[in-house]
Structures are given as structure tokens and as C-alpha cells.
Amino acid sequence: MGIFSNFIGRLFGRQQMPVFFTEGHDGTRSTLSEEDAMRVATIYACVRIISEDIGTLPLHIKMRTDSGKGKVQNGHPVARLMRRPNPYMNGIDFRCALIASLELYGNAYAIVRERDKRGYATRLDLLDPRSVKPIAGEHDVYYSVADMSELVPSRDMVHIKGYAPDGIEGKSPVRMHQDLIENFINATKFSKKLYKNDLRSAAVFSLDGVLPEDAYNRVKEQLSKAWQRVNSDGTKPLILEGGTKVQTMTITPENAQFIATKLQTIDEIAAIFRVPPHKVGDWTRGTYSNNAQANLEYSTDCIRPLLVKVEEELNRKLFLESEKAEYYIDIDFRGLFRADTATRKDWYREMFYIGVFSSNDIRALEDLPAYEGGDKYYVPVNLQSADGNNQINNSNE
Q: How many CB atoms lie within 10 A of CB 218?
């Protein structure tokens, strides 16, 4: 089983899914659940793409240095915790599940179950967001957990929030957009029935004249039985009496507008999760150039804000107060471009030309050994300041 199947099973497999009742825009009651929403292929794809993209990015514990470049600290207690947060999850599974919960429910919770003598967390357990309720106190936020008798203080609860107007509890995107999701589910059920009948909605049999009651009942019985006897070759031949005519009413895919409706809904759901439509199967308007731009916007508008939220919350809850100014968690955003050779190459070239990276810096990012003389930084020699007085020369030799 893959990463996504493992952690989504944990979210939905521990207990029977409850349903929530909310008022739709038309005043009707809805029983849509997150499990129902995950049966929509576009939502499943969005949650899987975002959670796996973030969960599989390299995560490092770094220490700030005088040079401004963070030094990786693989032996730090928080680094060990991030590699194995609890007995049944590794670090990737944990982060994927955390983001999946965030995208589905608007909140992701992980409780600190154990600490060592120094105060470092040694175990983080993912919680079902339906079992947790944040409560704002005068000086802190506390968490009511279904199977716990005491409130949990914020220092012992990692809480990643999605859209949270009050800053305390995130809003579920499924609940906020239940009408759109229900319409998509209903349209899918309707189209399934329609296509199962080969787009035939009904059959109309026209008879000349009025039959006696016994004849009418006999013909009705024959037609009903014949119409139901359908196999892979189609309906069996039917012999009709008395000049009976048959006419079928069909609906073409164009008239049904299923394709256009589904594509529109795919785009709307993808917009909720800030995922480009081409990533969830809608290639109707996709070209190489605009897909590349959409991927860049996905990285900056969807993934980056989530990374900042995760880093900030983990930094706040996992490090000791005495070391928060010195240590920090860095989730390497560049991992998104690992499979995109062209983008990575262009980025390295740009960073090299403006003196941000040396050759050995680039080789280190590619897990290649350094070479002698590769630590020099270069800048273009044909640049000068805006007032024209100072020209930049290569003085790194």
C-alpha cells in the first residue's frame, strides 16, 4: 500500500464516520461527510497531491550561525522526533496525514504524549479532528479531547489551522462548499444511471385504437418482460401486434451537458484547494507554457503558505524556550523541483550568476562531492550602481 492509502485509512478506519447536519443555501439539511467528499475524484486528487507534495519534502533541523547559513543538526532531539514521531508512523507518513487532515477538516491536531527529562517531546500522536475542540482561555488556548478528562494546554498540542476567521479553529472546506460537492455527487449518480441505459430515458409504445382490457394487460406484461431482458448484445427482438409502433427517447451527451458541467465543477473544486486543474485531470485549456506558470503559482500560492504554517507551529511547540532563537525547522521548498530538471537548472544558473550560490553549493544540493576551487562566488562584471559611480567588479578571486 502507498503512503496516501496508509494514512487515509488511519483517518477513516478507526471508527464509523459520523455525519454532520448543516443548512444548505436552499434551507435543506445536508448529511455530507468528509468520507463522502473523498469519494469525489477531484477532492481525493487534491488532498493526495497537496499532502504528498508537502509530506515528502526534506525536513531539517537547523541552527543559526554568524554567516547566516543554517547548520543542519541531525542529532537534535526534535530531529529524531520528526523522523519517528510515534511507534506506528515514520516522519513522512505523519506529515502526509497531518496535511490530509488539514485539507479535509480545516484543522490538524497532534498531541504530545510523552516528554523526556529535559522537556523535549518524544512522541506525537495524530488526533481525529472531529474529537478535538479548541477553547480560548484568558491567557492560552486549551483543547478538549473526546477520550481525555482534562483539557490539554496549547504547549502540548500541535494545531495547524486552515482558513480560520477567529484565529482559533479552522473551517472545513467540505462544510463550507457542501452545495457544490453534493451537486457534483448527484450529477455523477444521475449520469451513471443515464449512461447505464445507453442514454435512453424511456420507451414510448404507440398503438392504433384501444385494446380490450385482457389484451392490454397481456401486451403490457409482454413488453415489460421484454424491456427488462437486456444482455451484452442489447434488447431481445420483440414481436408486436396490431400495428404497434415503438419510439425511444434519447439524450445526446451534448444535450445532457455532462462533460461541460463536470469540467466546470472540477475547476471549482480545484480552486477551493488552490490546485491547478491540469493536476486533477482537466487538460482542456492546458498548454506547456500556461501549465508551467500554473505549477509555479501552485508552489507559491498553495504549498508555500502551508509550509510556513507547519514550520511556525512546529518551531513554537517542539523546541525549548531557551533555544527557540537558535534552532528552527526548515522544510526544503526546493524539493518540489527535484523532478523538474529544466526548472531546477534555470534556478541554479540564476542563483550562481548573482552570487548567491557557488559551484560547491549547487553540488551539495545535488548530493555531489565538493571540488577544490568550487567555493568562490561570482557576479557579473558589467553591472554598475544606478547613479553610475560604482561599477561592480569581480573581487572574489
A: 13
